[in-house]
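Sample A.
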Amino acid sequence: MRSLVCLLALAGFTTQSLGQQQPLYATAKPNVVFILTDDQDAQLGSLDYMPYVKKHLLDKGTHYRSHYCTTSVCCPSRVTLWTGKLAHNTNVTDVNPPHGGYPKFISQGLNDNYLPVWLQEAGYNTYYTGKLFNVHTVDNYNAPFPAGFTGNDFLLDPFTYDYLNSTFQRDREPPQSYEGEYSTDILGQKAYRLLDEAVTAQKPFFLTVAPIAPHCNVFMNGTGLDANPKFSFSAPIPAKRHEHLFPDVRVPRTPSFNPEKPSGANWIKTLKRQNDTNVDYNDHFYRQRLRALQAVDELVDGLFTLLKEYDILDNTYVVYSSDNGYHVGQHRLQPGKSCGYEEDINVPLIVRGPSVAQNVSTDIVTTHTDLAPTFLDLLGIPLREDFDGDPIPFTESQIEEAHDERQEHVTVEYWGYAAGEGIYDCAYPTHTLHSLTVHVLIRTLKVDLSAYNNTYKALRIRGSEYNLYYSVWCNNEHELYDMTSDPHQLHNLLSTNGLPNATSHIILNVDLSKVVQRLDSLLLVLKSCKGQVCVRPWDALHPRGEVTTLKDALDVRYDYYYEMEQTTRVQFDECARGYFLDVEGPQFGQGTEYGVLRNGLPCIIWDLRSPAAPQQTPNRVALNPILRIDWPDELSMHLLTTPLLYRILSFQATPQYTKTVGIVLSVLFTIVMVVHMVMDEFLLHAVTFGTAVYLIATRTLKIIPREIPDVEDRKRIQNVALFGCASFIFGYLVWLVDEWVCQSLIGARHAVGLPVAFLLELHGWWHVFTAIGGYIAVAIIDLITSGNLQRDSVAQLAWPLPTVARLLGPAEGEMKRR
């Protein structure tokens, strides 16, 4: 029956189009068909009920079981998917204005800066049918039109989620209603038409097919732009032909399903246990989701049938995913999403195509921020530098390498309120408040709605030896779940203030409090990260790169550093409706560039503790310059050269000239240090220091012949001075080498152990050699400018000057100043 339905739906294309076009074109560039469902879970087994997805995708492609959305609600998640940026970087954080929806996407300037536009710039035709964003309506669909599409047929609000009364808008034409027709079937016809257009154009293409299933059915009185739109939620509606399926299926009775004891934090831990009537309804809701997905499954089969008929399947990537996950009864929650638990953030991702590993399932961590970079990478298009994600590995060799090299974390964030989507939604008392209303209540009238706010920042981290979820809510309650022993997230290991309430719990043989220190520091970086810092956040905490995983960070040598780092923790000042940086507590690296703390930091210190960019809280802003760990090195460099430069430049000068030199050097010293420390401007510091060293060396070597006319005496002093220059230059070269190989040397030192390991501490050695050079400069300049130079003066100085003078100079003899 299902195959017959697919054949009937395809009939208009396989008879009319294919007969006219064979043989079909061949292109060197691959195509993409992206199927994006709405609210499809990965944890509740929905894929088990989709045989065509299994046949065409799971059996022929790679299933990424640890794929996550980063904001578990429709519009923010979709914007992240299309831009490759986390929601805190797009500032589209809600489904409705003023903080989300299509109007916010436009006002943020994203309509000209997202994947479809980039694909067209790279020579691809782009097509889209189905749901794009929330509040993309019959009123604003052309204000402006979504950019970047060669052809489109969008679902529009307020009819997007009405399974039997959808409205589509094609290209630049007016919207058209399809009352009484099933939404996914209409979508299928439009998808087949767009695929036919794409093939006819004989250019590489990217086609997105975005059905609403298995989202709940929504009747909306208003467009979402109204001040108080009315919403009516009910279970998804399947196609008539699927209504009878799965009569005995129930929501999986996992330990987290309607548990006897409350779980979670914030408002979730206050939920009452559902009664039998509520549970029965949730089972019905779950069955309706599975039934609604059957038309999507048929749509998948239809697309593959066409790709085969067009003879382009082998040159086409087919990607299947969902915008976010879904819960039905877990943690006593009514049907919905928006939480940080596994049901809501873990979503399907399956990829099939050229070179993609077949019939493979992998647990490497991937996220929606990775999808835009992945699409560009698959199509051979250069990546953008501002992505918050990285391309997903898809060949067998890449996947194998990723198990050791790929990041293990997921940044999870949410703002606003959780909305129940069933008929028993009394647990979410604020879901009926429009975003604008809530915004006014909180920001203007200062009404405290924090008890119901769902705003949080969270971290999901999966390694080979650990599996954790850590979150901080806007009321500053904390959660930590060890999902190796507690996969259903029922036993929070932290008290409300974030301290361990299970002191005996051990992770990687490390006390829980130390694990929390690392997790919180990592979340502090991630909660406002940008670009590659989001991909490699440990580098912000450990700039030399020796820490890339939680396991690395738990090394005992970093305990002291993380104890210091935890003077600042992730916290909120207010439960806001949207993303307001000023209420989101301390920010990592505020006012500085990530990684600048590499400068001047000894490698040996990295073995004991690692620096972090200063945390700017109100009582610490003024102390930030003092907290810079590279101050001692850089300040000492100029404190050495500036007095020496003054001494050598003012030698035998007039009083007026000496005064002028002192004033000029004092002003230059102040400017250089202030500019460098306040603005992190390294070039000025480096150039002025190098210039000072050059002037000191050349000026000193010129004065020596004038002040020491005796050839033997002059030779001795010159040799000592040249040795000092050589020692300083050698120390500088060792410093350069140390900057590049510090990470490797850490491992080498651990491997060989003491005492040999001491020889590999290059940072200590470059300090030794530059210190010798600096001391020789001070000693020689003091001798030749003081007028007290005697033959035994060098012999009375500290080692190694007497030895150097003896080895490089003439025999000892009485010496008088000429």
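Sample B, a different protein:
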Amino acid sequence: MTSSAKSDKKSTALRYGLYFLIPLLTMLAIFIIQQMFPFGKHTLLTYDLNEQYVDFYAFYRDTLLHHPSQFFYSFTNGLGGETVGLWAYYLLSPFNLILLLTPGKWLPVGIMIMTLVKFSFAGYAICYFLDHVFPSKRTRMFLPMVAVVYPLMGWTLANQFNVMWLDVLILMPFVLYGIEKLIDTDQLLYFAIFVGLTLLINFYMGYMVCVFACLYFIWAAVRKWNGWRSFGKRAGKFAFGGILGAASVGFLLFPAYYDIVHSKGQYMMQSLPVKIEYAPWKMLSKFVMGALNDNQVQNGLPNLFIGSAIVIGFILYFLAKKIPWREKLAAGLVTLFLAASLCWSPLDLFWHLFQYPVFYPYRFSFVVGIWMVILAVRGIVQIGKPNWMQLTVAAFLPLSCLMIMALNLQKFNFLNTAKVIGTTVFFCLIMIALSIALLTPLKTKKQLTVKLIAVLAVTILSIIEMGANAQLTMKVFQWTSEKDYAAFTSSLDKNVAWIQKHAAKNEFYRIGKTYQRTENDSLQAGYNGISNFSSTQRANVTHLMRELGQPTFTGKVNYTKGTPLTDALFDLQYFLSPVNQYNNLTGNNVTPASSYRPDISYYTPVHKRGDVATYSNPLAMGLGFAANRKVLQPLSTSPTDTTANQDAVLNAITGKNQQFFNKVGYSIEAVNCHLEGGANGILVTDDKQQPSSYTVIIKNTNNLPYYLQMDSNILWNANITVNGNSLPGVGNIYQPALVNVAANIANTTVKIQINPTNGKDVALNNFYVYQLNLDKLQKSVYKVKENQMNLLHLGKLKLTGTVNVPSSQDILMTTIPYSKGWHVKVDGEKVKSQKALGAFLAVPMSPGKHLVKFSFWPPLLNLGIIVSLFAWTMIYLIFKKEY
């Protein structure tokens, strides 16, 4: 290698090192300013990163380090469920390996490091792409600027807590580079491989990349136009390469498809709404710095901030005379398609696989960012020495938009005068610096110096601009403290460890709690739980839980309104609860209250550690038991009577018709309010400027548990106290909830006070007080337990047990969520499983004692493996041909 070649190689390495470091150091500075642990008290845990992903990452560590079979299935995933979809949706980024180095309380630090590294590689990837697609000295001059504006664009900052999405910023430039190579050389392998990698690492974002790749291919093919015949040939190779790439990861996509179809896919739009979602001009507001607040995160406009230099370059692209009109026309059509996607519902839904996002709208808007970056760099390169008219247009259009924003601030609650002025100042400074850089020729050394200073100014100003936007964005988020996270996880881990140590061998059990950090605590601590929050939560299980009065939402079950009946049904053999639940309701970072359950006082206390007691539930019915054939029939449920639904479930199992919950009377005290329409009418505040209260009084209680049935209108529009103690928030209730207000306290008076919020009218729909007949419940449950399945082997994917089936109950019902992935053998013979209660795995049996074996294998995995093997064979043959 010559000295010149060595020098070039060293120079290239330094340049790419710079592209990597600029976004890393910029975001590291922001994290330090935001006092992220270990530089302060905060963590990056906010929104779904706090409520879901951090627990998934704990599950990731447990799977890779201890239980690899959890890649397929885990009983820590809610009541139990396939996990291939979970991995495909959340956990296959190679950067997740960083988390293996950060256990326990250090997990949030690992997430921060991983996030920084992703920002860095995104800067590296886009610069690699542009350096190879538009190679020139001018391109290289502006790549340090691109290295910061691309990874720190508005979409990234607004979605940084959706960490698994960030990989798309790294992979997408390589997919697009594969298209360039395909067009230039007719070689499709590079493109196919990166399509496969993108779908493997995150199939959801990968789908969006594939859609954008089609648009990019059209533009790139027009840019390098060589006639219709050539276009047709290239299009064929492009389509084949995309299909080949997707097929190469069929081993993941096929079982993930099955998993998603039976979970998130159940909420797919049944009809296609056609509407303009908002006034299109309003999307211009998102090019202003700091254009974000909590409402925007949840259900706002697309996040489009991309920096002033890119906006200027984007306009110059369409003004550059060296760029052919055909190419500009193609670029204009792609831009119009993307703009329409940002505001027209059919295209918006198309990008999101025909499901409106739950929070984080316009998730595909990152493609607008890379599109603008590509056109901007090409525009800056091809504009040459711009004339004053071109520069005037490039300045006038953005400044006019900023003026419109300034005049309409009242329409955007996420903007203020300071943000608009700040954006304007940065735009003007960058416009001046960029103009000098473009106008200055390279005839003398002095001119070269001026040009380099101007380019450096553009880069530095862009770093400051993007950093300022990042800082404004980060201020929107509420961060979980490192102390709270560490205290909770440490305490829960130790209490769960005690149960796991003392539980009998081959004993299956689930653990319930009256406190929680998130619905995914079971994934974090590695125990069999019941609550769950993920896009792969089984829809039929969610539906049943809703009918039993539990708070649910799309992809979410929060078991906070259980009763001894549902505890028994779901085999909640152990319960963790603060020693004094009343005292815990005021707030505690170690045991944050999620429910009030005095009825667990009927269970047996078996352990105490600190302020947390462990209870053993003698009513837990086990994972499987003999049940009546009624469990196979559609369950007759009521949308207004949760107690009737719970009765119906147990009666279906026993084959009897018993009522376990009975209504009881109560007296009331009304202060500054009255009822209109009877006991279940509207509670109206008389003087809305004064506080009001409606108190339900239950006198002369016995030792039985009491429940107040309430629907969401009460829970959302009033504050509720029991004997002066506020109850924890209940979440999303679609079915009336049963709130446990008393248990095990004979001869006392219970006062339940409803305080309307700000004088709001409160509808007391389905408002009743119930008493649970504990003796009747115990007799029924113990009768079921007589024919409980006795487990001989308890594995992660295989279960073996014996069960004695009486003639009147010839169904082995389990509380394993139904899936075609479960295969059952009874006495060595394969049998077809069925659904019990519309949600659980059940097996018809003849009377007598039987040996039952359950084994799990993900549906469609074998087909996916076959498709992948075929695709890999094709890739090998193509590799031999092309290389």
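Observation for Sample B: The mean pLDDT is 94.
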